[in-house]
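Work Package 4 report. The design task specified in the project plan requires that, given a folded chain encoded as structure tokens, an amino acid be chosen for each position. We show below one input record used in the internal validation round.
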């Protein structure tokens, strides 16, 4: 037996300790639309959906396996699969299967979906006039709640992007962690886009002329959802492009600073190399005339100490002149 303790239900229907089949049987005969939420459905739920309630096998298998976004009609039943934000903070979206039969809207999900609690609050505050539109109004409220759930998240992503861009372009704080934060932001935006694009597909499919998937009286509600989802898609795409641009700017800044550091290192090494090249022949001259042995040419014949120093200076000037003509003494940044 599948007990519905703690499930969210709209309407004068007591679900405490009752199984899914009995609840649905009573709900189908009610004038008030009813929402039944099944969290973490098990094999018993699968059996009831297939055998007792005779839902299409293809639709039931989507609940327990891989479930792409879809809108399908099987006789008088309508089945939707939508991606919504989950609360486990590991993967930001999870599929929610929606079954509509008569006056009943049933959601089946394997994860904790924050939008479901908000959906329940909205239904409790709904006007009787809106509820009189039937289960299609509940479907509109569900889609609108899932879409609204992304608005504050996108605002948080926008604030994070602004902070990272400020840090990148003003060089405030350390660079460590910026690239990882940008990658995480891009990942969150991709997950948001999955859910938002899923909503966009579902709403367009529901409003497709000729299919009559929702009642004419609720078309203006779904048109509002379509406009909201379109705005969310534009925001997600803009933030994703901004994150990509910020990542490229950060990498460019890092490469520029690395290039400047390499240039300074190259300048130091050039200076040390030139100094060593000049000192090498001078050391050779000093070593030769400092040997304690007879030489073909004595230091006195070259003017003694000052003659040797003059010879060293001539060598140094000659080498500097050679380096200058070859362009080795110029600053690369002056080119």
């Amino acid at each position: 037996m599948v007990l519905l303790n703690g499930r969210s239900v709209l309407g004068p229907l007591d679900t405490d300790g009752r199984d899914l089949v009995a609840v649905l049987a009573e709900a189908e005969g009610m004038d008030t639309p009813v929402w039944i939420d099944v969290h973490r459905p098990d094999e018993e739920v699968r059996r009831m959906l297939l055998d007792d309630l005779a839902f299409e096998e293809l639709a039931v298998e989507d609940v327990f396996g891989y479930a792409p976004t879809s809108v399908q009609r099987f006789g008088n039943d309508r089945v939707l699969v939508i991606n919504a934000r989950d609360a486990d903070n590991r993967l930001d979206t999870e599929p929610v299967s929606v079954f509509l039969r008569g006056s009943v809207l049933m959601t089946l999900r394997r994860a904790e979906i924050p939008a479901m609690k908000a959906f329940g609050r909205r239904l409790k505050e709904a006007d009787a006039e809106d509820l009189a539109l039937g289960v299609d109004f509940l479907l509109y409220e569900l889609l609108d709640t899932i879409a609204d759930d992304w608005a504050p998240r996108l605002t948080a992503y926008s604030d994070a992007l602004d902070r990272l861009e400020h840090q990148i372009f003003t060089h405030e704080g350390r660079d460590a962690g910026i690239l990882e934060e940008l990658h995480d932001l891009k990942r969150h935006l991709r997950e948001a886009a999955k859910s938002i694009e899923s909503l966009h597909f579902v709403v367009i499919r529901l409003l497709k002329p000729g299919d009559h998937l929702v009642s004419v009286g609720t078309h203006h509600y779904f048109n509002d959802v379509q406009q909201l989802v379109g705005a969310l898609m534009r925001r997600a795409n803009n933030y994703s492009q901004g994150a990509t641009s910020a990542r490229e700017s950060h990498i460019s800044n890092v490469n520029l600073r690395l290039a400047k550091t390499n240039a300074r290192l190259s300048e130091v090494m050039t200076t040390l190399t030139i100094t060593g090249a000049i000192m090498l022949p001078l050391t050779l001259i000093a070593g030769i005339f400092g040997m304690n042995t007879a030489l073909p040419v004595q230091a006195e014949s070259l003017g003694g100490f000052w003659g040797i120093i003059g010879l060293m200076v001539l060598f140094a000037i000659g080498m500097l002149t050679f380096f200058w003509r070859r362009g080795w003494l110029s600053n690369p940044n002056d080119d």
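Residues 131 and 249 are 52 Å apart (CA to CA). Validation will be extended to a larger panel in the next phase.
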